[in-house]
Amino acid sequence: MRHYRIRSAAFGGLRTITVILPEEYSRTRTRYPVLYLHDGSADWTKRGKYSGGASFITVLPEPQDRTAEYKLSRAHLEFVTRELVPWADRTLRTLARADARAVHGVSLGGLTAVWLGLKHPRIFGAAGGQGGAYWYWKQRIVRAVEKSRPVATRFFLTCGALDGNLPDNRDLFAAMRDGGFDCTYREVPGRHSWACWRRSLPPMLEDYFGPSQR
């Protein structure tokens, strides 16, 4: 695990980035797909028990004000698309193309990840959320999908059967299905909790990068 500090014009200050590299990274010259993972390394590594992937790089932008940033703030969206992704492609041995990038998050992190996939299909080939907070702003993301033509991004939505966000996840999936988007939807046992997200993450990593990428 590596930590970087990068200057952001979008936020007007320094931001911390955590990177988890594949074990073989230092022993090869291979270029890797990248998972842009929202919600911060502390939650993912401690509560989510996340340790990265064998065949992809994980980039975790550390939020300073998670709620404000993940409610579709312009600063965060510009930071990810105009600063973070180019920085990663310059700094790390990435496969610098959309079909080798996925963006993911849980709850509000899922909202911002799916929004990024919807608005920036030339940057992210896949986007997904677990227990996504798609209720935000009277289901703004659902209404945006209903008004949008299908994009090239592949979407993956997972929600616990006892998650309070379940109705909104169903509504977003229905909008994507009816609109002709490429969207996979799963309901799994569990609540709006890290226990549920830990169990349901591995299939989503396979969705993004294939079985060998898990």
What's this model, at a glance?
The chain has 7 helices and 8 strands. With 214 residues, it is an alpha/beta fold.
What keywords describe this structure?
globular; Rossmann fold; single chain; alpha/beta; 7 helices
Folded structure, characterized:
This protein is of the alpha/beta class and 214 residues long. The chain has a domain at 2-130 and 192-209: Rossmann fold (3-Layer(aba) Sandwich), CATH 3.40.50.1820. Helices cover 39% and strands 22% of the residues. It has seven helices and eight strands, in the order E-E-E-H-E-H-H-E-H-E-H-E-H-E-H. It has helices spanning 41-47, 66-70, 74-91, 108-119, 136-147, 166-179, 194-209, and strands at 2-8, 13-20, 34-37, 57-61, 101-106, 126-130, 154-160, 183-188. The protein has an eight-stranded mixed β-sheet with strand order 1-2-4-3-5-6-7-8, sandwiched between helices. A hairpin with a 4-residue loop joins strand 1 (2-8) and strand 2 (13-20). The protein is globular. It starts with a strand and ends in a 5-residue tail after the last helix.
Q: CATH topology of the domain at 2-130 and 192-209, anyone? A: Rossmann fold
Helix and strand composition category: alpha/beta
The coarse overall form would be globular
Q: Helical residue percent?
A: 25-40%
Distance from N terminus to C terminus (CA atoms, Å) equals 17 Å
What is the class of the domain at 2-130 and 192-209 in the CATH system? Alpha Beta
Low-confidence stretches: none
Number of strands: 8
Number of H- or I-type helical stretches? 7
Q: Can you name the CATH architecture of the domain at 2-130 and 192-209?
A: 3-Layer(aba) Sandwich
Mean pLDDT score, rounded?
97
How would you sum up the major sheet? 8 strands, mixed
